[in-house]
Design brief:
With 181 residues, this protein is mainly alpha-helical. The protein has six helices and no strands.
């Protein structure tokens, strides 16, 4: 199943391809460009190690009762605020990259595609890119919590996606406001 050329889904597929290319390609000029299977293997091993650590952490934190200790809730709130600030920083970097560093915005805006869909897809690409980085490290907590009988830990998925959407929208607006200023 392929998307119709020029549609938002078609543009989003290209945006995600660019994100993964930038994430997995070598930044070193001496190494050949292309997909790095060794890097994928390292990330997979790291993800499994994070799962093992999350299993241990959730076992210590999530006791038998339904009520969470006040200190845990306070610590989680502080960590969420810090995570949001890091997301905002990542989204600012990504917004500058997708709007200005690629050098294709003039070409896209002069094409017959609606500018609204171009900016929407660029924003969606930033949201997915920012959320994927943080879900890589935080999703193991949700998995471990669900496997230990605490399904409320699965709320981590919509929380991280919502935070990434808000941070990315704010970053895109801030980037455009700074350029306009």
């Amino acid at each position: 199943m392929s998307a119709r050329p020029g549609s938002a889904l078609w543009l989003l597929r290209h945006e995600l391809r660019m994100f993964w290319y930038n994430m997995l390609s070598s930044k070193n000029d001496k190494e050949p460009r292309g997909f790095q299977w060794k890097l994928v293997a390292v990330w997979l091993v790291l993800w499994l190690a994070v799962h093992a650590g999350a299993w241990f952490v959730v076992g210590k934190v999530a006791g038998g009762g339904d009520a969470l200790p006040r200190q845990l809730v306070l610590a989680a709130s502080v960590l969420l605020v810090a995570t949001f600030l890091f997301m905002l920083s990542s989204a600012l970097k990504s917004s500058v990259e997708v709007l200005f560093d690629r050098g294709d915005m003039d070409l896209l805006l002069s094409s017959p595609l609606p500018s609204r869909s171009i900016f929407t897809v660029r924003l969606a690409g930033v949201v997915i890119g920012v959320a994927s980085i943080y879900l890589f490290f935080l999703a193991p907590l949700a998995h471990a919590g669900a496997l230990r009988g605490h399904p409320r830990w699965l709320a981590l998925y919509p929380v991280v996606l919502g935070m990434a959407a808000i941070a990315s929208a704010g970053a895109m607006l801030l980037t455009l406001a700074l350029v306009r200023w």
